[in-house]
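Example record

One chain of 238 residues, shown exactly as stored in the release files.
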Amino acid sequence: MKNNKMLKMALASIVLSVSSYVNASLITTTFDNGDSLNNWSVDRAAPSSFDIVNNELVMNIAGPLNPNGGFYDTQGMKLDIGESTFMSIDMFIDSAWSNDERYGGFWSTAYDGTDAISAYPILEFQGGNGGSVAAYDSNIGWAHFSSLFNFDAFNTFAFEITGSGVEYFINGTSVYTDSVSDVSYFGEVILNAKYEGSDFAVRYDNLTYGSVDVPEPSTLAIFALGIMGLASRRVKKQ
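Predicted structure tokens for this chain:
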């Protein structure tokens, strides 16, 4: 565990020295055994469980269907992250997620300059037809990506606020931009999934959030941050 944290610190130093134009103030939670989850609260409906297991965050999704309707069949937990412009997490994509269902997701609440909600950026895995990572745009709906992710492995999802709106990343690659006209910061991170008849567990690790000031294009910095999370994952699992 000590080696894992030393590696993360070293890689963070490398990321911040990649370019003199990059300024970052980031917080990373590695969900180590013994860490507290007291600051997390229920979003929509509570999952069956939400615990740290083997130095990972594990969220179990189970039925029955919620009597309050489909909206509450989405189970999850959320965390206040202040006023962040960048957020990322590692999520394990299980090859057993083959049904046509909405499995684990990484959501945020985006706010405009008046502190009103202006968007709900989402990246989540959806099964069926081989599976895909889906990006949600509040104005358009879902966009699907059937590549860039790996089954039976942790994948890094990230959002960044840029001059063009909210940029979405899968494993360090920019895949989508939600051109919402007014977004100033991310206020919450939400981890959730939708129960649609199957019980399953979603595994998360290495939640990072905070302020990043990167002139366009920002792919290099985000790629480095993604590598940081994935490298940490490899050390943790050795």
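Notes: The two ends are 11 Å apart (CA to CA).
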